[in-house]
Amino acid sequence: MPPADSIRRIGRRVAVAGVALSDGGRVDEATPYALHAQAARRALTDAGIDRSLVDGLASAGLGTFAPVEVAEYLGLRPTWVDSTSVGGSTWEVMASHAADAIAQGRANAVLLVYGSTARADLKARRRTADLSFGTRGPLQFEAPYGHTLIAKYAMAARRHMHEYGTTLEQLAQVAVQARANAAANPDAMYREPVTVDDVLSGPVIADPFTKLHCCIRSDGGCAALLVAEDLVPDLATRPVWILGSGTAVSHTTMSEWEDFTVSPAATSGRTAFAQAGVTPFDIDLAEIYDAFTYMTLVTLEDLGFCAKGEGGSFVENGRLLRDGDLPVNTDGGGLSACHPGMRGLFLLVEAVRQLRGEAGDGRQVRRRDGALPELAVASGTGGWFCSSGTLVLGRG
């Protein structure tokens, strides 16, 4: 393999070369740094790439000088870095940035890595649940009134119900099908089946959301390695290509959100599909950020899988199951598999594994003719629909 600095050129295709999860679910003894390192080592092993070839690092959410501290902990000296932090969509936005940098010859191999002990920290009382992200800037006008993150999502869901007749039963279907997908995932934190009645009868967290409408809290980490096409012949695994990407931001305060029924995925998705030269109807599976059931429903609308207002009927009849019309969150998503914080990178990991055909018995998505899926979309959402990043991925 030629030295990394000898293969920089403009206009290169970009592939996801390796993906991995760290230990997850309940991890009481590890630090977030240890989960970063574990996921990074596994992703590099998956790709068959030596860490000396990694010249880019993207990381957020840890340390005072992210990603400098993470790079030091991993023993890397990157010449390209990204610490963009826009909530759950951070990783799709970072992947878009990294793909552009690689295509332009500014980097050859960029490692995206994340790790969090959100659950363990809460259990050990090293942290508490936050009322607000901060009281400076525009947020100062909402924070004093106790307007929590969950309440913001709940308000948006209620607006969709009011505008389009979306029902609680339809929202509950998202949680039920996510749990059914998680049942075949040995890495999922919760695998036992739930019913619509189970979802509706749970304790109310923020009207209309009961407990099972909301994501779980877990520990865990993951990593993905993006490389230039020059490195693809030396990979240990089949590449998955980044065909298109799009990013968008919307608002911080709810008063500046023009329409509670439209997320920034309406913009990021349109850009990603256009760049990839495909339509939503070409997609074989979708990995969508699901901190709450409403997120899945409205993102499906905004990505164009159904018309605005039709998300409720779209998610019925098992359409989101692994063998449904549009498999969604095939690992169980944030509602059942894991949610250690900014979960967007997990969407990319699952999409890549499905496109490679590595999901395993009982979990692998297949097309109607039995072939492996060809196209996937990973769409992350940050804040309370404040930001969005969407990636279209294709099997190599």
How would you explain this protein's 3D organization?
The protein has 396 residues and is of the alpha/beta class. The chain has helices at residues 32-47, 68-74, 90-103, 118-123, 149-164, 168-182, 196-201, 265-276, 293-303, 311-314, 333-336, 344-356; strands at residues 14-21, 56-58, 80-82, 109-116, 204-206, 209-210, 220-228, 240-249, 285-288, 375-382, 387-395. A 9-stranded mixed beta sheet has the order 3-2-4-7-1-8-11-10-9. A two-stranded antiparallel sheet has the order 5-6. Strand 2 (56-58), helix 2 (68-74) and strand 3 (80-82) form a beta-alpha-beta unit. Helix 6 (168-182) packs across helix 9 (293-303) and helix 8 (265-276) packs across helix 9. It is globular. It comes from Streptomyces tubbatahanensis. Pfam families: Thiolase_C_1. Residues 246-395 form the Thiolase C-terminal domain.
* Percentage of residues in DSSP E strands: 15-25%
Shape: globular
First-to-last CA distance: 21 Å
Taken in chain order, the helices and strands follow as: EHEHEHEHHHHEEEEHEHHHHEE
Chain-averaged pLDDT:
92
Number of continuous helical runs: 12
Supply Rg: 20 Å
Number of E-state strands: 11
Task: Give a concise summary.
This protein is α/β, with parallel strands linked by helices.
Break the fold down into its secondary structure elements and pairings:
Elements: E1 14-21, H1 32-47, E2 56-58, H2 68-74, E3 80-82, H3 90-103, E4 109-116, H4 118-123, H5 149-164, H6 168-182, H7 196-201, E5 204-206, E6 209-210, E7 220-228, E8 240-249, H8 265-276, E9 285-288, H9 293-303, H10 311-314, H11 333-336, H12 344-356, E10 375-382, E11 387-395
Parallel strand pairs: 2-3, 2-4, 9-10
Antiparallel strand pairs: 1-7, 1-8, 4-7, 5-6, 8-11, 10-11
Protein name: Acetyl-CoA acetyltransferase
Pfam families: Thiolase_C_1
Domain Thiolase C-terminal: 246-395
